[in-house]
Design a protein that fits this description.
Strand content: under 5%
Number of strands: 0
Order of helices and strands: HHHHHHHHHHHHHH
Oligomer: single chain
Shape: globular
């Protein structure tokens, strides 16, 4: 397989995963605003912090109100990290790879792109937001299922699986970091303490992990338990350890992958052996910083080994 094609397929999966993650985040944030008293709600700025787009947003806006933030994250064509920009990039890659990918996959992503472009304003309105985001999530999951169900095993599927799992691990770590920091900042607020469970349930729901957490841990929702589940659970598909293990499994079937496998395995073991119950917020933030740095270096090493060293911006 040409390195350019491998690079494109890797980022095709990352952009698709990013689109779904954004939809989940916005939907969970909307629900959280309804569950908390207005004066205690975290607002919409954390959504920009999680996606790393606060600087881009700040160039043209100063208001962190709901409508402008949601519009920016969903349908702003000038925001390289928006949902519309991500699905547009994935669509363009699929268009150039139509000789490799099944026709049904191209038709599905083209339809999803057209839907997002035509209906992005529905995400701004509270009444239609949930239905719009649900349609996007279902559309991306359909594409993911098609990749697994009708793309032959081989290098094409391998690079898409790598992209999907690296993106998932990165987004999960970002969500845990930003949400934990926000809750720590309000830890001295007596009014917020009764809502701790609601806040951590929101973190789980932003990754569709609430039911799996309850089934897997058989425990109440609490900070250390949620952090451990989302970072170190070996069975939940969006937990960092599970994502890294799946990426390792794929890499073992590719040539020249020994160094990358070793890097990911080292990161995975570091997460598994961490006692999150004993970490204060500062230590947790430093730990996740190291995790994200390791993921970024893994991405760079992938580029050097398989994509002729051509690094692509993450947003």
């Amino acid at each position: 397989m040409l390195s350019r094609v491998a690079d494109n397929l890797y980022w095709f999966a990352r952009y698709l995963e990013r689109t779904e993650n954004l939809a989940r985040l916005i939907d969970a944030s909307s629900s959280l605003m309804l569950d908390l008293p207005r004066h205690l709600a975290p607002g919409w700025q954390p959504l920009l912090n999680i996606t790393g787009s606060e600087a881009t947003y700040g160039r043209t806006a100063r208001d962190f109100a709901e409508k402008p933030v949601v519009r920016f994250v969903v349908g702003d064509r000038d925001n390289p990290g928006s949902m519309l920009s991500s699905i547009a990039r994935a669509r363009e890659i699929a268009r150039t790879a139509r000789d490799i990918l099944p026709r049904e996959l191209w038709e599905q992503i083209n339809g999803l792109y057209l839907f997002v472009g035509e209906h992005a304003d529905e995400a701004v309105a509270k009444r239609s937001r949930h239905a719009f985001l649900g349609r996007v999530i279902t559309g991306v999951q359909t594409l993911t299922g098609m990749c697994e169900g009708i793309v032959s095993e081989g290098e094409a599927l391998a690079f898409m699986t790598l992209g999907r799992n690296i993106e998932r691990a990165d987004m999960t770590s970002r969500i845990v970091d930003v949400r934990a920091a926000a809750m720590h900042g309000h830890s001295g607020t007596p009014e917020l303490r009764p809502f701790d469970t609601v806040l951590w349930m929101s973190v789980l729901r932003s990754l569709s992990g609430y039911q799996m957490y309850r089934i897997g841990t058989r425990a109440r929702v609490h900070a250390a338990g949620v952090v451990r589940f989302l970072l170190a659970d070996e069975r939940f598909p969006r937990a960092c350890v599970c994502c890294l293990r799946r990426a390792e499994d794929v890499l073992r079937g590719l040539p020249r992958s020994e160094s990358l496998v070793h890097r990911l395995a080292r990161t995975r073991r570091a997460i598994s052996h961490t006692r999150f119950e004993e970490l204060e917020q500062g230590a947790l933030h430093e730990f996740i910083d190291r995790l994200q740095l390791s993921l970024a270096r893994s991405n760079d090493e992938l580029a050097k080994v398989y994509f002729l060293g051509e690094l692509r911006p993450s947003a």
